[in-house]
Design a protein that fits this description.
271 residues; alpha/beta; four-stranded parallel beta sheet; single chain
Length: 271
């Protein structure tokens, strides 16, 4: 089956990477809308327009299902996409529900883009699952910019994280929910800041599991702790076409860029 994944940039690769582990053997189309990244600072009308165009592009390329691998785009465009297209279309949402269910008493921090935080979809989710009002919300838009530049560690990232969290007591938090697919690249920095006792939770595994259920696919249930032996070996298990704003990626420089990103995601997957 040919599965399309769409994001504003490279964040959605973290969902694709999880799919490589859990649904190997499928065909994938990955679309990064690099001409319009970051979505977190665009208007809902702009984002919806981009997503309709991007979804149509992947469907024309043969996608039989789509994953909106972007919390921001999901929050504003998923209903419109489902009304326009007949194939299965799945979205992302911050993993607040598992964070609430898997922890007790202490507070939970959800970090996301400004659009995700202010849209009704997240507010509705919190109303349903955060009965004890333990969840705090914090926009961290510059992490998207850092990720797109492949700046995942170092003084600038560390200073930004410290500055964003400066008004919160980190000892009060038992879980950090990564409400943007770009944020997975920064797991080591979050771990260094919060320590080993704070859960880092993202929605990638749940999204891929839901995708398998919707499409009737057998998910790989093995505990996949072992790194792929190589990037080449990983791609041999799948067939993937990468598009950066409708341009098929086949040049060596950009493929090396993708290789570095997948290697990073493999390294931080179980941090």
């Amino acid at each position: 089956m040919k599965i399309g994944l769409i994001d504003s940039g490279i964040g959605g690769l973290s969902v694709l990477h999880e799919a490589y582990h859990r649904l190997p053997g499928q065909e994938y189309l990955f679309f990064a809308d690099v001409e319009h990244v970051p979505y977190g600072e665009k208007t809902p009308l702009q984002i919806t327009g981009y997503m309709i165009e991007n979804a149509q592009f992947l469907i024309d390329k043969g996608a039989e299902a789509l994953v909106v691998a972007c919390n921001t785009a999901t929050s504003v465009a998923i209903k419109e996409l489902r009304s326009r297209f007949s194939i299965p279309i799945l979205g992302m949402e911050p993993a607040v529900k598992p964070a609430v269910e898997e922890t007790e008493k202490k507070r939970i921090m959800v970090i996301a883009t400004p659009v995700t935080i202010r849209e009704d979809k997240l507010k509705s989710l919190l109303h349903r699952v955060d009965e004890e009002h333990r969840v705090d919300l914090l926009p961290m838009p510059r992490l998207v910019e850092f990720a797109e530049k492949e700046v995942f560690d170092g003084p600038e990232v560390e200073a930004y994280i410290r500055d964003q969290f400066r008004t919160f007591n980190k000892a009060d938090y038992c879980a950090l929910v990564l409400g943007c697919t770009h944020f997975n690249y920064f797991k080591p920095a979050f771990r260094d800041y919060f320590g080993a006792g704070t859960l880092l939770i993202d929605g990638n595994h749940g999204t891929v599991r839901h995708l398998a259920d919707v499409l009737g696919l057998n998910i790989n249930q093995q505990h996949t702790e072992v790194f792929f032996e190589s990037y080449h070996n990983m791609l041999c298990q799948t067939k993937t076409e990468y598009y950066f704003s409708k341009k098929l990626i086949n040049d060596e420089k950009t493929l090396e860029h993708l290789k570095r990103l997948h290697n990073r995601l493999e390294q931080v997957r179980n941090v």
